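Archive entry: two folds, one per protein. Generate the first.
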Amino acid sequence: MESYGKVITGRGLHSPKLTRLLAYIVYNHDRLLLVDELADVIWENDPVSNPAGALKNLVYRLRTELVAALGPEAENFIVSGRGSYGWNTEISVETDVEELEACRGRASFFPDSDAALAELRQVDKLYAGDFLPEVSTSFRIHAASVYFKGVWLECVKRCLTILEIRGDYGEMEGISSRAIDLDPLDEELYCFSVRALVAQGKLKLAGEQYVIGCSVLQSELGISAPRKLRDCYELLQREIHPAENDIRHIKELLSEEHKESCTFFCEFGVFKRIYQLSVRSLERSGISYYLPLVSFMVETNFETGEEKKHGVIELRNGAAPIGTF
């Protein structure tokens, strides 16, 4: 929080409860807050027997800290009413979230223009992660946090789309990389990043970003081979192996330099294509085909700590299951 060039931070308040109180009052600076509402935010998981008395003491301590850090005029920042506290409405206040909303609104009036791009960049600059992390566990703040994240995501994706249309792949790479740091579970952000890297000829980095995206989405959300990322993978493969007109060169690329007897491992998109082509060939010839799924599992006896490892094989003939072994 800044006032006339002087700054006070959560660390400067030396108290999580004071930080929660100040953050919540500033966020709701346009209204008075009842004691019960403030108590829910400040002592959410540790209720007190006399919230009115405890809050009165906390407000006194907050005013003291504000005056010490920002000067005597800060004594009037917080006002009290009948069973309520709030920000002094005679003192103007500007918050990041209000500026974020204003930038989003202005950008909507300038579709795909330099003015819109400037506003969208400002939204991305203002957003620093979860809203009010000091009080993010409160149900009153959680909904707002989800909303503001959605506003930021909408704006950053629109910004990235404009940059991609304009061919500004360097900035597109930087913005998408920061966005992934803030929200590593959004598939589209990985796609923007991969396309930006491919367009700049950074094919190795693009491949690494694709693998990271698939791994994170698989481990965190259980999404295997996301569709949009698979499309990006195919784009990457076209850049790595461009169309060849020389049949002899194609033959050289396809031939195996060294015959390998080990198992062939590939990502799901490659396996899917191989499987589909194999099925088409076998169906023409009338030959039966089988698809085994091998799963390896570890069962732990929590009483003894002993681990038992075993595998399960599910066998299918076309679409019909044969059995599990």
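Generate the second and append.
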Amino acid sequence: MEEEGDVIEIREGEFDYGEEEVVEVKKIVEVEEEEDLPKKKKAKKTTTFISGGAEGADFEWAKQVVSHNMVVEIMTFQDHHAHVPSDDPKLCKVIPVSQDALRRVDKILFVASVALKKKIPSKEFTSNYLRRNWYVVNTAEAVFAVGKLIPNGKGLGVDGGTGWACQLYWQNKMNTVRGDMFLFDMATEKWMKCTLAGKWEECSSAPSYSKYSRVALIGSRALTESGLRAIESVFTS
């Protein structure tokens, strides 16, 4: 063993590697260096949910989200009583939409009314519920709904205010950026998925929210027991 400070003499030809050997040695060194580096953990993808704060399905959706320590944004407007499952502002964010912002949706709402063969309510407070629906679904990558399909129904055939929200999402989001929309039909007690053509196809199981960063949660105020179980299944399956 050489003493510290000794000079090691290398004679010519003693370490005469060919080009292939040099490349191979370089690869080995690079692999060893990579193994020595600390492994970077991939950031876990989180999902933010959006709802309308109504009683029934909206409230039960939000309650499930908060109980699983996730974030729900609840869209509301002036004089609207939002049903909020938690006082924790980190988990339950109540977002008021101004009247001016609500009125800007009127042209979009009119297109939906034509497809649904329904009139927009004349009372502004009532029409605000439909306008509010746009702000629930507009930024979502997917919509999870609980409602009822009406045989030979107009538009997408979903009953009530849930039908308006589904129609708004399909005509303005699915036809442009290809979002996904799922419906638990309380009439048949089956999960369905909406196609780009506006038809509903049966699903084998409840949808998964894990691949989406923002999911709109909507549904009927008149929630059945099977509808409640369907909501719970999204967070337990």
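Annotation attached to the second fold: The radius of gyration is 28 Å. The chain has a mean pLDDT of 85.
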